[in-house]
Amino acid sequence: MSFFGMGNNNQAVNPQNIAMAEQEVEMMSDIFNRIVRSCQEKCINNKYHEADLTKGESVCIDRCVAKYFEVNQKLSEHMQKRGEARGGM
Amino acid sequence: MERLNAKEQEALGQVLEAKQLKEYLRMYSTLTQNCFKDCVQDFTTNKLSKKEGECIIKCAEKFLKHSERVGQRFAEFNAKQMSS
């Protein structure tokens, strides 16, 4: 088996692929940070009576994350509808 | 996400490592600011009181656990998205 000469060139690095993957990671990271900040404001009591999350805070966080994604989805659909209504403008 | 070959995955891995470090530092600085804002009120002295010190630690723990939980729900949601 030879590693040189002919053979498929699938070990080449396509910088575009990496850039796209990086963009996607960046986007996910951004959404994550926004959710952390938003749900902290809505769910976490800032008196810090204890170091653990209370049951109430835990449940709030779960619901907060779910709703955030739902808002994201809803707006995505809405924007799409608007775009179509204007004839794709 | 596009399928990346081994070399591309390696290159992406390095980029992600750098990003992870940056994220960690950003979180650390957010944590400091948040916990300072919520816990430190007493400026009759330039040393943290015992109460303030304890508050800071609880604040940090709470935030980190919060962030962890969001991470779990986030990952679950993404897994569901990808399989649907």
UniProtKB/TrEMBL annotation, chain A:
Q: Name one GO cellular component term.
A: mitochondrial inner membrane
> GO MF terms on file?
metal ion binding
Q: Which residues form the signal peptide?
A: none
Tell me where it mainly resides: mitochondrion
Could you list this entry's UniProt keywords, alphabetically sorted.
Chaperone, Disulfide bond, Membrane, Metal-binding, Mitochondrion, Mitochondrion inner membrane, Protein transport, Translocation, Transport, Zinc
**SUPFAM superfamilies given for it?**
Tim10-like
Compartments, record wording: Mitochondrion inner membrane
One GO term of the biological process aspect: protein insertion into mitochondrial inner membrane
In terms of InterPro entries, this protein maps to:
Tim10-like, Tim10-like_dom_sf
| Membrane topology, record value | Peripheral membrane protein
What sequence ranges are listed for the domain Tim10-like? 18-81
Q: How does it assemble?
A: Heterohexamer.
Report the family membership.
Answer: Belongs to the small Tim family.
Reported function? Mitochondrial intermembrane chaperone that participates in the import and insertion of some multi-pass transmembrane proteins into the mitochondrial inner membrane. Also required for the transfer of beta-barrel precursors from the TOM complex to the sorting and assembly machinery (SAM complex) of the outer membrane. Acts as a chaperone-like protein that protects the hydrophobic precursors from aggregation and guide them through the mitochondrial intermembrane space.
The Swiss-Prot or TrEMBL note on domains reads: The twin CX3C motif contains 4 conserved Cys residues that form 2 disulfide bonds in the mitochondrial intermembrane space.
Query: What protein name applies here?
Result: Mitochondrial import inner membrane translocase subunit
> Species name for this entry?
Schizosaccharomyces japonicus (strain yFS275 / FY16936)
Gene symbol?
Answer: tim10
TrEMBL record, chain B:
- Tell me which family the UniProt entry assigns to this protein: Belongs to the small Tim family.
Q: What is known of its domains?
A: The twin CX3C motif contains 4 conserved Cys residues that form 2 disulfide bonds in the mitochondrial intermembrane space.
What InterPro entries does the entry give? Mito_inner_translocase_sub, Tim10-like, Tim10-like_dom_sf
The reply to whether Zinc figures as a keyword in the UniProt entry is yes
Which named protein is this?
A: Mitochondrial import inner membrane translocase subunit
Q: What is the source species?
A: Schizosaccharomyces japonicus (strain yFS275 / FY16936) (Fission yeast)
In its UniProt record, a GO molecular function of this protein is: unfolded protein binding
> What is the protein's membrane topology class?
Peripheral membrane protein
- Look up the domain of life of the source: Eukaryota
The record's function comment reads:
Mitochondrial intermembrane chaperone that participates in the import and insertion of some multi-pass transmembrane proteins into the mitochondrial inner membrane. Also required for the transfer of beta-barrel precursors from the TOM complex to the sorting and assembly machinery (SAM complex) of the outer membrane. Acts as a chaperone-like protein that protects the hydrophobic precursors from aggregation and guide them through the mitochondrial intermembrane space.
Gene Ontology annotations for the cellular component aspect, listed alphabetically: mitochondrial intermembrane space chaperone complex; TIM22 mitochondrial import inner membrane insertion complex
Q: Which UniProt keywords apply?
A: Chaperone, Disulfide bond, Membrane, Metal-binding, Mitochondrion, Mitochondrion inner membrane, Protein transport, Translocation, Transport, Zinc
Ranges for domain Tim10-like: 14-76
GO terms classed as biological process:
protein insertion into mitochondrial inner membrane; protein transport
The record's subcellular location field reads: Mitochondrion inner membrane
The record's note on quaternary structure and interaction partners says: Heterohexamer.
Q: Has UniProt tagged this entry with the keyword Metal-binding?
A: yes
